[in-house]
Design goal:
Blueprint: H1 13-19, H2 39-42, E1 45-46, E2 55-61, H3 67-71, E3 79-85, E4 94-100, H4 103-111, E5 115-116, E6 119-120, E7 122-125, E8 128-129, E9 140-146, H5 152-162, E10 167-176, E11 181-188, H6 191-204, E12 212-215
Antiparallel strand pairs: 1-8, 2-4, 2-7, 3-4, 5-6, 9-11, 9-12, 10-11
Length: 225
């Protein structure tokens, strides 16, 4: 089965730029290496009031912490994006940018930041803020399809054709031996450019018969719906 890009729908600009060796350099005064023309980058708002801001900057994260570890400590609301940054010169710990779907979720996290392995996380509002996102999106995808393609190897290759992505985790939900169908859940690090792009790629790919995809529930919002 051909998983490479076909038809009018194209891979994310980040994926295309990577293939061409054109990954963007950080913009002046920023460490951002993503797509400077993306909707996500352009929708940032400087000098937002705290009550409006969904974006947090977190420091004092142990260097061994992965996306899986970090997401396990987020339970105040659905996440739009998480980006872990390795230590830079003069710093011994990781940092992270965490953007929630709502400002209420960000406020709850900032009010009671977690500790990881006894190390207290330092949380402030990000000066490059985001307003509450009311779109019905999720960083979680639920994919159902024929058993022979429902495995991490197949979907990792498929996602890699379309997106520069990071998976928090992925696992099987169920298999029906009678119908030969399997359902899997994939949890990405962010919505735009990752979960959203991969969902659209599946929906627009002509060579995925029997495959369906939909957004799933973000477990980070299990307490606050």
């Amino acid at each position: 089965m051909n998983v490479n890009p076909q038809g009018p729908f194209q891979p994310s600009r980040m994926r295309q730029a990577f293939r061409q060796g054109l990954i963007a350099q950080p913009s002046p005064g920023s460490n951002y290496r993503g797509d400077l023309n993306s909707q996500s980058f352009l929708s940032q708002k400087d000098n937002l009031s705290d009550v409006q801001n969904c974006s947090l900057f977190i420091t004092n994260i142990p260097t061994w912490v992965t996306y899986t570890h970090m997401f396990a400590h987020i339970n105040t609301g659905a996440v739009f994006a998480l980006y872990l940054m390795p230590p830079i010169l003069g710093h011994s710990q990781q940092a992270a940018k965490l953007v929630f779907m709502s400002s209420d979720a960000a406020a709850r996290f900032k009010q009671s930041p977690p500790s990881i392995a006894g190390q207290h996380l330092h949380v402030v509002y990000n000066r490059h803020g985001y307003l509450t996102n009311y779109r019905r999106l999720s960083r979680v995808l639920i994919i159902q399809g024929p058993c022979h393609i429902m495995n991490l190897e197949f979907w990792y290759k498929f996602f890699d054709s379309w997106s520069m992505f990071i998976l928090e985790t992925a696992f099987h939900l169920w298999t029906n031996p009678t119908t030969g169908m399997t359902q899997m859940e994939f949890r990405f690090a962010r919505i735009d450019g990752q979960a959203e792009t991969c969902l659209q790629a599946i929906q627009n790919h002509p060579d995925l018969p029997g495959v369906t995809v939909m957004y799933g529930h973000d477990p980070c919002a299990s307490i606050y719906h």
